[in-house]
Structures are given as C-alpha cells and as structure tokens.
Amino acid sequence: MSQVNISAKDKLDDPFYRYKRDRVLISTSERFGGLTTIENWSTLCKQLKIQPQQLQKFFSKEWGCQVDVNGKIKKKLLRDNIETSLQKFTEQFLLCPTCKLPELLNSHCQSCGNGPKK
Q1: Facing residues of 38 across strands?
Q2: Which residues share a beta bridge with 104?
Q3: 82-109, pLDDT tens digit by residue?
Q4: Are 1 and 39 spatial neighbours (Cβ–Cβ below 8 Å)?
Q5: For 66-86, what is each residue's pLDDT tens digit?
Q6: What is the three-state SS of 21-80?
Q7: 96: which of 7, 68, 105, 114 lies 20 to 30 Å off by Cα?
Q8: pTM of the predicted model, to two decimals?
Q9: CB distance 24 to 83 below 8 Å
Q10: How would residue 12 be classed by pLDDT, with cut points 50, 70 and 90?
C-alpha cells in the first residue's frame, strides 16, 4: 500500500520523512443518493494518533453531511476530496505551528517544546 507523509505541504514528497500514513481507500455506492466509505478509517486514525470521533466531527463540518464513526459518509466524494480534507485536518490540528512536525499532545509540541505557557 502506498503511503503519504504526515506533514506540511512543503514536505509531502520527501521519501525519507519518518511520519507517514496510508493513502485513503474508498468505496462508493449509489444507494440513498450517494454513500462513500473510507475503508481504512481505523488504520488512518491509528496512524494519525487520533480518536475516530475527532476526524468524524471535522469531516461532518467540512462537507456538511453525516459521517459516522466508522468512516461511512452520506455523500458521494472522490478520493482526492477526502485526501485534501485530511491534509487540511492535519495542518490545523496535528502539526506544531513552530516546527511543523506532527508531535502535538494537548497543544504542547513533544519535539520543539512549543505550547501554552504555564
């Protein structure tokens, strides 16, 4: 399975970058006006070190449709749309604003130490 870097846009094609995730795998159905399922939903959540509910909430707001906790989306979407939204989620919530590494834990970067002052 091919992988993509978990990073800011300037490091997406670096083959030696250590933070990686699988590409999104989808299946679509024409039932109920269109249904898209992210087949590797739980794997993506584990690789991003997030709860499925976090991604569910973000995607629901992003696309204005119902998304369940198992990656079923009540809208017909292309894989590129999902990849773009996943990159947006990564940049907004997972990358440190200072060092751009996905090392945030409770708004504190485990890599560079950036975070709220006590």
Answers
A1: 26
A2: 109
A3: 999 999 999 999 999 888 888 888 888 8
A4: no
A5: 999 999 999 999 999 999 999
A6: EECCCEEEECHHHCEEEECCHHHHHHHHCCCHHHHHHHHHHHHCCCECCCCEECCCCCHH
A7: 68
A8: 0.86
A9: yes
A10: low
Closest CA to 73 of 59, 86, 85, 61: 59
Identify the structural domains of the chain with CATH numbers, from first to last: 3-109 (3.30.30.170)
Among 58, 68, 57, residue whose Cα is nearest residue 35: 68
Q: Backbone dihedral region of 23: left (phi > 0), alpha (psi from -120 to 50 degrees) or beta?
A: beta
Q: Residue 114 class from Cβ within 10 Å (0-12 exposed, 13-18 middle, 19+ buried)?
A: middle
